[in-house]
Amino acid sequence: MSSGKITVVISQAPGKNPAKRALEENLAASLLMESGIELSIVPHLYDLGPDHTGRLFLESIQGDMVVLAWLFPRAAYWLLDRDGIGGTEGQSPLHPLAPKDEDEDEEPTVKAPGIGSAIGGPNRTIWCLDLRDHAGHQVYLEEIRRISAEVTLLRQARQAQKQANQPVAIITLGLPPQKAAPEFTPENLLEAPGRRWYPVIDYSRCTNCLECLDFCLFGVYGVDGLDRILVENQDSCKKGCPACSRVCPEQAIIFPDYKSPAIAGAPVGNISGLKIDLSKLFGGEDAMVVAAKERDRELVRDGREAVGQTVGIARRQANKPSGPKDDLDSLLDTLDSLDI
């Protein structure tokens, strides 16, 4: 699908929360009155299977796109990438980049670069906005207007450059007609999908260490022809289990629907809304221990034997933090320094 308009997609929240539905409906009603915008509504992004009409529609979009979902923008962007819907990630002032850790400048470390997107996406930009951030629709409407104006200027610049580099008209007579784009009705787009659970890889952070492949014993992960990690059998993942995310040294594995922001795709270092559980603060377990217990629980449910930390725990991580620090980590460090 390609047109002079920017495509705006509202991804509905799972369930029937009246406040969430009201926000979606108010936003949709306002966007229908906007020029230069092509609006569509699909079910929850995370639940769209490969054969769902909503997924097929998203795959058909060729131009710039704004996706509004009840997910962290990082989770939504890499979820789309995982489904073959690629492009450059657009930045929005509604979702500023995560601040640096306080001690990052004091002790600079050399980090391995992420391996990058697993797909070759089209030359377009995808903005992902989190519908959980604001109760009213007006702030999203204003941001979409800003993005639409930005896209218009970019397209004008691209067209001017194209005309400057191609002064001679290309004759297309005799070429076969292009295949018509498939038609997508609102009824088909909004067909309710089943709930799903699977990991999403943030390839901007993933260094292809393959520790998730070693740790997971359920056949979820695999590698492609270039030996790059991928989620090969997503439906083999155990519902509600985020264990592999805890093992990842770069916090590159996202479970978009998980309750913890750090695992659900919050920007690293920007989890200020985290509520501290005092039972975890005093006597909480290491992430590796928790991950091993979560994996054992699923193994036992499958009628297999628990393996604890004897399988797939990388020894080279023994003295290495299991991921970027969040608010709880920083508080624990402060308490340790006070020796209380």
What attributes does this structure have?
alpha/beta, 5-stranded parallel sheet
Major beta sheet, strand line-up: 2-1-3-5-4
Find the structural class using helix and strand composition. Answer: alpha/beta
User: What's the overall geometry?
Assistant: globular
* Strand element count: 9
Distance between the termini: 61 Å
Helix content: 25-40%
Helix and strand topology:
Blueprint: E1 6-11, H1 18-31, E2 37-42, H2 53-60, E3 65-69, H3 73-82, E4 88-89, E5 125-130, H4 138-165, H5 186-189, E6 200-201, H6 211-215, E7 221-223, E8 229-231, H7 243-247, E9 253-254, H8 261-264, H9 278-281, H10 287-301, H11 327-338
Parallel strand pairs: 1-2, 1-3, 3-5, 4-5
Antiparallel strand pairs: 6-9, 7-8
Commentary on this structure:
There is one protein chain. This protein has 340 residues and is α/β, with parallel strands linked by helices. It has 2 domains: 184 residues, no CATH class; 139 residues, no CATH class. Helices cover 32% and strands 10% of the residues. It is built from 11 helices and 9 strands. A 5-stranded parallel sheet has the order 2-1-3-5-4. Strand 1, helix 1 and strand 2 form a beta-alpha-beta unit. It is globular, with a radius of gyration of 22 Å. About 11% of the residues have low confidence.
